[in-house]
Amino acid sequence: QTRQNAIAAVTNYTPTVEPLNFSETSPTEVFGSNVFNDKVMKNMLPKDIYKSLMATKQSGEEMDPAIAGPIAAAMKEWAISKGATHYTHVFYPLTGLTAEKHDGFLSPDGEGGAFAEFDAKLLIQGEPDASSFPSGGLRATFEARGYTAWDVTNPAYILENPNGTFLCIPTAFISWKGHALDKKTPLLRANQAINKAGRRFLGLFGNDDGEMVVSNAGPEQEYFLLDRNFYFARPDLMVCGRTLFGAKPAKGQELDDHYFGAIPRRVLAFMLEVERELYKLGVPVKTRHNEVAPGQFEIAPVFEQANLATDHNQMIMTTLKAVGKRYGMACLLHEKPFAGINGSGKHLNYSLSTPTQGSLYSPGATPHENMQFLAITAATIRAVEKFGKLLRATVATAGNDHRLGANEAPPAIISIFLGGELAEIFNQIEMGDLKGTKAKGKLRVGVDTLPPLPMDSGDRNRTSPFAFTGNRFEFRAVGSNQSIAGSQVALNTIMSESLDFMCDEIEKITKGDPKKLSSACQKVIKGIMEKHGHVIFNGDGYADAWQKEAEKRGLPNLKTTVDALPNLIDEEVVKVFSDYGVLSKDEMYSRHEIFFEQYNQHVQTESALVVKIAKTIILPSAIRYQGELAATAASLKAAGIEPTLGTLSELTDKLRQLQKTTEALEELMAQNSFKSVEEEAKFKTDKILPAMLDVREVADALEGMVADDLWPLPSYQEMLFIK
Ligand code: ADP
Ligand code: MG
């Protein structure tokens, strides 16, 4: 039935919505049409108020509270004109999800009538009942409330849909004592830190022109699409977002015929609609294509400043899911929905820039500019080597464990790819002797005499977790389902520390004498290369040889969440976060606790579902088939024909194994006294996950034996190829 419905959905598919078309709707007409953006504000707000708001946005300084009233009034008028009845403070709790609490504009006037109410107070601060969001001990349970605070730097917008339209206000979510309970607050703090350290660094090179140094993010989002009929027939997909059972299909991705292939038409219609929705919200989505696995796709926006890009990525994820439904499809954001098939990640393209200088990771045209470029790149090498374990911890989730280190995603070892030419230049600096004589066999590349660097050296490496790609670094280990905030916060924090380190070291040598800058720079880079240069690796990250080589170099290989998360409370990590005012010790410990809890909950849910599906879906269908085989054997015997009992005995054997492995899993799950969340997680990694796989192995073998018409779960083949 499921199969027939899905096939009918594909073959009978006719477009219901007129696709977007730029001759009828111009790009400017649609882009940002549901955003309370600068243009709208300029039109609606008194001049001085608009100016004051812009100054706040551009300088990152505190807002004059007096301007909130007029802004709230304009926002209300605009939202109501767009059809909104409600408003919501949107916030990003530590679950990584997007949370909303809706309030109506309608307010009774006390005389039997009502009016639309929305003022400065309601704009600036909200109080969601947030007791069920994780706080990791930061908020005693009796003090359930946290509050949401308007993030002036990101624009409010309208979410318009057939089921109701409402105004969304981006907010930070904070406890009454001021602790960050969300993903946005630390990002705003880390942005401030990088601005300060970045400007100090630019100042050293005479390039601080008074403008903010901002961090940018360009997240490439991967996802799977499958027909909703299949989705609803698979409790594992519905509840966990990934298949807990399923035999390998006869045709997988071996042929690589999906990658960059023609996009199926229902999918194309879906993509166009996703894009239209996102354009309206001012999300600059740009690229779309098929990904490596069948049924897998990618959407990528043009990069933006990190805070905006992070909110926009959350909107992209929400929109993919919502629009999927309208097209009869389910969008899976899980990192590994199908075993044996490529998983989904999110490449986080990272750079630092100023409005006039552009990306600080762009090699310049002159050797002098290149000195600054080499210095910031060296600072990055140092940061990534020194805090590699932290970066690994920011991408540690139950889902991502299935992907990292498999032969498709970067390995769990954090290394940097620089590309041949750039790596060579850093080698030269490391080898070069500073007195100016030629080191034996090595060309001396003093910073003063650097050759112009290649703008885009063209060589690319898909296997590195942290790759230089011409004018940015690409952090490829982020999971498809994760918020990009965690990694972005970590990068900004460790880069602040590293830039300050560079400045300190260089200043120690120059003592303010600009003539000494280039030799000082060279000396500091050389020192960094000697201490941290082993993090550079330009080879094949998938090869076994790299695992061994990395071990020799002393690079950590943290394979699982359980190995990675403890680094969040590593002394050095806690110190750098608190030194830069990004997260306090308490806030780091709470995150450590919450992320472990989340891991445990995920595995708990999955294991419970493995038992349930094995017992109530797979076992019964196999028993039915066993009955059919037994009945056939009996009737053959009655007719005087000797039946061959091979299949029946093999099936019976597997049935017993299924029961045995399921019982073994249940027994392990019964253990529930643990001293800490960490101990529990370790138990789940070492014992529960393998026991789940034992059940799966038997069940998948049964899938290959039981009559197809009796098998209840849609197969990999069907889910991946019918679309
Ligand atoms: P590829 O798949 O080839 O790596 P894509 O075009 O899919 O590239 O995505 C690249 C992403 O990197 C885009 O989001 C793009 O806007 C972003 N990007 C480009 N330049 C920068 C930069 N300087 N800083 C941050 N992100 C950038
Ligand atoms: Mg891409």
From TrEMBL:
InterPro entries: Gln-synt_C, Gln_synt_N, Gln_synth/guanido_kin_cat_dom, Gln_synth_cat_dom, Gln_synth_gly_rich_site, GS_Type-3, GSIII_N
Start and end residues of each GS beta-grasp domain: 85-178
PROSITE patterns xrefs: GLNA_ATP (PS00181), GS_BETA_GRASP (PS51986), GS_CATALYTIC (PS51987)
Gene3D superfamilies found in the cross-reference section: 1.20.120.1560, Glutamine synthetase/guanido kinase, catalytic domain (3.30.590.10)
GS catalytic domain: residues covered: 183-618
Family: Belongs to the glutamine synthetase family.
Protein name: Glutamine synthetase
Species in which this protein is naturally found: Pseudodesulfovibrio nedwellii
